[in-house]
Amino acid sequence: MRAAVLHEIGQEKLEVLDDVEAVGFGPGRVRIRVRATGLCHSDLSAMAGVLPQPAPFVPGHEGAGEILEVGEGVSHLKAGDRVVVCWLPACGACPACKRGQTELCLAGFMNAGTPNFRRPGGDVFGFAGTGTFTEEVVVDAGCAVPIPDDVPFDIAALIGCGVTTGLGAALNTADVEAGSSVAVIGCGGVGISAIQGARLKGAAEIVAVDPVASRREAALEFGATRAVSPDELADAKQQVTAGEGFDYVFEVVGKSATARTAYETTRRGGTLVVVGAGAMDDFLQLNMFELFFDEKRILPSMYGGGDVLRSYERTIALWRAGRVDLDRLITHRVPLSEINEALDQMRTGASLRTCIEI
Ligand SMILES: [Zn+2]
Ligand SMILES: [Zn+2]
Asked: How many angstroms is it from 140 CA to the middle of ligand 1?
């Protein structure tokens, strides 16, 4: 079958090969025919070595498709079921799951060192234990979450990562207060989802911050009240908050430099929500005086910071009711053969979300 493979960390281009096999099927596992997968910035980060990931590997972790076969002991799924691929499955039994913090369950990472694919040249890993830039993938049954019939595969794929992450940051982690002021730094698919979440919660002012003009325009269409480039942020802070700083600032880039800017843009007593996935050797500096004296709350948000399955259901309900716009989040649609062009579009910020139709 076909899959897009990165041979070595640091390479920019994937090779679409047709000699790849999805491996690991057995008890408790399911085989999925992937129909749609989104490009998430974390895929680029893993390819570049910013996020830890062994190579060669098949990137992609935001996908949806149909169950082809289920292994022994899998009772909640059958062939033909439509599912979203969840890269962070909840085991239901660990302390984090029992507390309801299923986004902190580490069960999904237990298989991280096990190859998901094989080709004549040897083993191939799957990103984040999944790997969705492929026709088929084998995952734990817990990674396959059934979706209702009215949710198309492309929308379901977005719910698998970017939308859940961005919406959840605003709805779960920040729990944005009505009437508040919000700034969102980084307006790709996740940032736009955070903007939609802040709008749903009734934020009065939502300032979108991004260096790319087309993303700023998009942010305005999705609910931002103004959109500025990074060098205009200080002025916007002055105009919107009289210099005090925003009630909530979302950092959706994953770099210490933008996190530091976000910290300085947050008002005293306000909330900085860290959404971007950054590198282990990129350190955010805060001095002990400001940390204590300014009483800013720093809230990291992992995968939307809440019960993952509940977040999926909530997003579907909001989408059905027309309260969040997921359809226009997909700005590009391409076949797997054009994945490298799609990656380039994401690097330059030309796309919000690209859907790979497989
Ligand atoms: Zn667990
Ligand atoms: Zn992602």
From this structure: 13
Query: If DSSP codes are grouped into helix, strand and coil, which group holds residue 259?
Result: helix
Ligand 2 center to residue 166 CA distance, Å? 10
Q: How far is the CA of 132 from the centre of ligand 2 (A)?
A: 11
Q: Name which of 215, 229, 282 is nearest 254 in CA terms.
A: 282
- The rounded Å distance from CA 240 to ligand 2 centre is 31
Q: How far apart are the first and last CA of the chain?
A: 11
Given CA atoms 49, 51, 54, 56 in this order, what sign does their dihedral have?
A: negative
Place of tokens 């709350």: 297
How far, in Å, from the CA of 42 to the mean position of ligand 2?
5
Span from the CA of 18 to the centroid of ligand 2 (angstroms)? 25
Phi, psi angle pair for 31, to nearest 5°: -105, 130
The whole-number mean pLDDT for each consecutive block of 10 residues of the chain, a chain of 358 residues, reads: 97 96 96 96 93 94 97 96 93 90 84 88 92 96 95 96 96 98 97 98 98 97 98 98 98 97 98 95 97 98 92 96 96 95 93 93
Q: How far apart are CA 303 and CA 86, in angstroms?
A: 10
Distance CA 116, CA 141 (A): 14
d(CA 329, CA 332): 9
Query: pTM higher than 0.90, yes or no?
Result: yes
Angle at 245 between CA 239 and CA 247, to 5 degrees: 115
Q: Which ligand is nearest to the CA of 162?
A: 2
Interior CA angle at 22 toward 19 and 28, to 5°? Answer: 170
Query: CB–CB of 50/29 below 8 Å?
Result: no
By the CB criterion, residues less than 5 angstroms from ion ligand 2 are 40, 42, 161
Å from CA of 326 to ligand 1 middle: 29
